[in-house]
Amino acid sequence: MKLSKRLQTIADFVKKNSVVADIGTDHAHIPIYLIENNIIDKAYACDINKGPLEKAKENIENFGVSENIVLRLSNGLDKMSNKEVDTIIIAGMGGELIIDILNRGKAFFDKKNTFILSPHTKTDEVRDYLIRKGFKIIKEDMCIDEGKFYTVMEVRYTENTVMYSEAELLYGKYLIENKHPVLLRFLKKEEEKYINILSNTGLNEDRKKELRHRLDIIKETMNEM
């Protein structure tokens, strides 16, 4: 199984011999890859829709890994048990949906579990939710796949809450501290975007103030890197 750059970045977070639940598995590419490359022995491929699970079943059979991957029709973690897994992948969806899945899956807020998250939107809101709920963001990575930027984070439940600055919520404390080259490219693109928006003469003063504030954060973050 050959993965896209985005999926490979997610798969690279999975530790050897984990038992994985891939939430929103779509066609089960990540579980198949992990089994095929002897990284794990067992995975649960979960999706809310029957269509993707049928395609996942076909892929799993074609790659000869049916004994290692359990298909489960599930809305988020609803049909999973905390006893079954120790690694939970929630990726390929918006930040609001990831937060909703986590909110409904509080039985999995367990120090034994690793969560691998990749929100496509509202990454700052996901980070804010995590640190308020007692999670520690262990590390993050970024990649560019087909011209789009993606962030992946590994988090664990600790019960302890920490404070993040606005810049750290927006762009990732780990990524900033480690001067991630893809983050720097993203910040440069963001800077151009906000400068272009500010050039619009129809903006009211409140909106201009908001945009200038974001530009200041972007420039300060770039200077740190």
From TrEMBL:
Protein keywords: Methyltransferase, Transferase
InterPro entries in the cross-refs: SAM-dependent_MTases_sf, TrmK
Pfam families tied to this protein: Methyltransf_18
Keyword Cell membrane: no
BP term (GO), one: methylation
GO molecular function: tRNA (adenine(22)-N1)-methyltransferase activity
Keyword Transferase attached: yes
Protein name as annotated: SAM-dependent methyltransferase
Lineage: Bacteria, Bacillati, Bacillota, Clostridia, Lachnospirales
